[in-house]
Write a structure and sequence with these properties.
Blueprint lengths: L9 E3 L5 E3 L2 H23 L4 H20 L1 H10 L10 H16 L11 H17 L6 H24 L3 H26 L10 E2 L2 E2 L6 H7 L1 H12 L8 H17 L3 H18 L5 H24 L3 H7 L7 H17 L15 H33 L4 E2 L2 E2 H14 L9 H24 L1
Helix pairs in contact: 1-2, 1-4, 2-3, 2-4, 3-4, 3-7, 4-6, 5-15, 6-17, 7-10, 8-11, 9-10, 9-16, 10-12, 11-16, 14-15, 15-16, 15-17, 16-17
Length: about 450
């Protein structure tokens, strides 16, 4: 409780009297300790990053000053940089962890937000404990530690989003930042696609759009949350009143981005998410909204057809649309090895020790065993359960965001996880945090009614 009251920013002097403590001093002390611990860990696991680490630590000082003065603007900048992840650490990786610590120390974030739906919080920490236990059996300890640090950082990203969004204004800021990140990514793809970029095979590689991502299979799912968000805002405006044509244009551009990624899992993800959203919204939509939806679908199909014809993509499309590719047999073989490893190792084989698993569930089971799998399973399904209950209610919005959007996107992404390992996707943890926010509000309101 002492830390929860930290926003008071008080301390006791040597005479036992209360005095105000400067936020800058507290932030400097806290961040120095955390930065020192992280620096030691990075130097132990990746000594070649020492020069970059030094520059980063020097850059912390102006960022702390800016964060205290313009905290929300810096949050927007961090979310808007989610699409710049070709190189690591990415800009968002350097910015949001700092904002998490700074927000807690400066009182911009409060741990009180974790009091509702505590089973989600608890299951995450059980998963953390199992992660640490599985280190004991890892064949390559240094690699496992690095893999584990990334996992913990991404969980921290989820905690930041969870703690930050406490109002409609903050929800709008985060979602706007995400939409900006998605549109900028598609814009870069468009520049190279139409020969307006000086680069070649940079934003589009082997005919597949990936923008500033490393993999087209990661780029496509990244666009689905903003698509569903804009789709909902088009049918039921709330956070973005009016501007229907801008929403339609942005949606079509983002859908084109998903299509041009030529990711079979990404296509299935979008299709399932849209179907789930429509299934939850069917009774509440008017005939006029259905008419707009049908017209929008036809326009989208025409745009995709024009893209295929103009860019001579038909043969490549038919090849990518084949249900099974030649390399899929290798994936299935690795997944069988992973299942056998999970069955024979109680705490798994260690973080990051199953390579090219191409499945969130198989990798979790293999690396953390049955206990780790169950812990993650609970952490994912409990918020989804509450989100679904919220989506069915008359007031489905939480801080302005529809629970239908969150539920549909989560269902699509969890389906995506069957064939792709997404534990280290930033977009996965952002969506998880949004799902957690909805679940917490729904859980609290249900308890109040009892």
């Amino acid at each position: 409780m002492a830390f929860l009251r930290f926003q008071e920013k008080i301390a006791v002097n040597q005479h036992g009297q209360l005095q105000t403590v400067g936020v800058f001093a507290l932030a400097a002390i806290g961040l120095s300790g955390i930065a020192g611990a992280m620096a030691a860990l990075v130097l132990y696991t990746a000594p070649q990053l020492a020069p970059l680490l030094l520059l980063g630590l020097i850059g912390v000082i102006p960022v702390v000053a800016l964060g205290l003065a313009r905290f929300h603007a810096l949050v927007f900048l961090g979310i808007a940089s989610l699409g710049v992840v070709r190189w690591e650490p990415a800009p968002v990786d350097m910015l949001l962890p700092l904002l998490l610590v700074l927000g807690l120390l400066a009182g911009r974030l409060s741990l009180r937000e974790l009091q509702n739906a505590s089973i989600i919080h608890a299951s995450l920490w059980v998963f953390v404990a199992i992660n640490l236990a599985s280190l004991l059996v890892a064949r390559d300890l240094v690699y496992s530690i690095r893999y584990l640090v990334i996992t913990f950082y991404l969980m921290g990203l989820a905690y930041f989003v969870r703690l930050y969004i406490t109002s409609q204004e903050r929800m709008r800021l985060v979602l706007f930042g995400y939409v900006v990140a998605a549109l900028l990514s598609v814009f870069l793809v468009g520049l190279e696609l139409f020969g307006l970029s000086p680069t070649s095979e940079f934003f589009i590689r082997e005919q597949r759009a990936l923008a500033l991502f490393k993999d087209a299979n990661v780029f496509a799912p990244f666009l689905i949350l903003p698509i569903l968000f804009l789709f909902d805002e088009l049918l039921r405006p709330h956070l973005i009143p009016g501007r229907s044509w801008l929403k339609i244009g942005a949606m079509l551009a983002l859908c084109a981005g998903v299509f041009l990624a030529f990711s079979r899992a990404g296509w299935a993800n979008l299709l399932v998410a849209l179907m789930a959203y429509l299934a939850m919204s069917a009774r509440s939509l008017s005939w006029w909204q259905w008419a707009r939806l049908i017209l929008l679908t036809l326009v989208g199909l025409v745009v995709l057809a024009v893209l295929v014809v103009q860019l001579n993509l038909l043969s490549f499309l038919l090849w990518r649309a084949t249900p099974l590719q030649s390399y899929d047999s290798d994936r299935f073989g690795t997944q069988m090895v992973g299942i056998e490893a999970g069955l024979s190792h109680l705490f798994g084989i260690g973080p990051g020790m199953l390579f090219d698993a191409h499945s969130l569930y198989v990798r979790t089971f293999a690396e953390y065993g049955v206990f780790g799998f169950v812990a993650l399973f609970i952490a994912l399904l409990v918020p989804l359960f509450y989100c679904f209950r919220r989506a069915r209610s008359a007031s489905d919005r939480v801080h302005g965001l529809s629970a239908r959007v969150v539920t549909a996107c989560m269902v699509g992404l969890l389906l995506n996880g069957l064939v792709i390992d997404l534990i280290h996707w930033r977009s996965f943890w952002v969506l998880f945090a949004l799902c957690w926010i909805v679940a917490a509000v729904q859980s609290y309101e249900e308890r109040q009614k009892r």
